[in-house]
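Look over this one:
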Amino acid sequence: MSPVEHGEVFVLDDGGEVDLDLGNYERFLDIKLTRDNNITTGKIYQDVIDRERRGDYLGKTVQVVPHITDAIQEWIERVAQIPVDGESGPADVCVIELGGTIGDIESMPFIEALGQFSYRVGSHNFCLIHVSLVPVLNVVGEQKTKPTQHSVRGLRCLGLTPHLIACRSTTALEENVKTKVSQFCHVQKENIITLYDVSNIWHIPLLLRDQKAHEAIFKVLNLQGLTREPELEEWTSRAEICDMLHEPVRIAMVGKYTRLSDAYLSVIKALVHASVARGKKLFVDWVPAGDLEDATAKENPDAYKAAWKLLKGADGVLVPGGFGDRGVQGKILAAKYAREKRIPFLGICLGMQIAVIEFARSVLGLKDANSTEFDPNTKNPCVIFMPEGSTTHMGATMRLGSRRTYFQSTECKSAKLYGNKRFIDERHRHRYEVNPEMVARLENAGLSFTGKDETGQRMEIVELRNHPYFIGVQFHPEFKSRPGKPSALFIGLIAAACGQLDAFLPGSESKRNIPNGPANDMSQRNIPYGASNDMPQRNIPNGASNHMFQAACGQLESFFQGSETKRNVPNGAAKAYQNGAATKLANRPQDSAYSIFNGMHL
């Protein structure tokens, strides 16, 4: 799937390559989904064709109705019985998201299947929530309900009637607008939910709670009296803290798909989780890798200068994964800059591979060192095609899903960040790997491969000795990062970019001598404002303690003591915000930098 067209390809534990929406569900609900939780038209048609070939239909004519629609319903009911939250037994309620727009020909069989399903299971076992856009005319500020009226009418024509309508808009729906939607769409007014633009996406559960959306769903499903009130204290604190952060940390994202931020959605989320845990406001500088290359200096000098200005102004550098040779030389230059200037660096998948290539070229003197992906005939292949990979089929032929990595030493930074575990399980998606025949030469020159697979032949983690933070990983740690449990390597990058890594790592003397309260001179102390001397550091699950978020809260509580802003924000109160536009920075190119907390979903 092309990242430019679909956004990132999210990878699940079982190796399923799915839409990025499943990543949002995993992050919000802290669950582990499977490839079967992703239903596609291709999967359904393939299932029906396989049944027909086996003779399951006994020679009958295979049609969309009933065979395709039955297959969809059977898939839903089967997957709904599979627990995804770590508990035994099926869930009480299964959430089904039907993407697309009402009227799309692609979704017709699914809408028909859901219509049949709702009739078959009964009214108290099916709740339909219709999400609709309510645009606002900027000139007069009027909220227009016609799109919602027409989409509900189209939905009714297809056999489905919504119980709730969730209205997306830039501002909260006015009461007369709610009344109009209720009247024309035949939905009770209290079941019209307004989802307006907020400063960060963690406010959305609070909006739903304040409008009693959960009670409306319980009523439809006849679950009243069997449920508890939502426990959203942590969500409330997290949402408010995100709005209060002001200490900046700048990360340069050097990639080839920088024009579409969704191509790196999980990376952005992981950076946000880590920056909030460290009490910092994240700013991402998007650096197109190709603009760092010498060819751009001749063809477009302004873009070349702007890219290097962003890179040199960043507190840390991150090179994410990717495929193909476009922009590779720019990524290599970014890794070289971070290595030589001792700037914190994190390379993911291809980012690790280009760091190895750069080291071989600059330190070992192998000027033609390369990956066989980019130069099949290179005499010094630092990165090679995996033996089990397919050279003829691209789809689902990579090394996918959760794989185990064993630390080779407990003294390396990555092992310490993961809580001194012996091994970790992270998700992979790659065809190429570091050439094991080159490992000895690279390590003798100062590059340490601190994580390997169970065979010892696959390099999973690379670190540079005597560097503040220079780590590359073959896996994708961003896929398992959660709001309350940031990824270990991302929190390490943010801590290093803020000068806090030594105080954060287990066993550091400096972190035991940090007094409570804000530091008078942050330039002289590698600690966050108000860092507590009892901040939890050890036994970090998934790379970050369950209490890490609470520690960040403690920092901000002490810093914002007496703040009028804080005292005037009620817990969980629904607040109206301006349309989340990117905040441009005065001394930055206008299309390159923005604040994650202003206009960017978390």
Remarks:
- The first helix runs from residue 3 to 6.
- The longest strand covers residues 399-407.
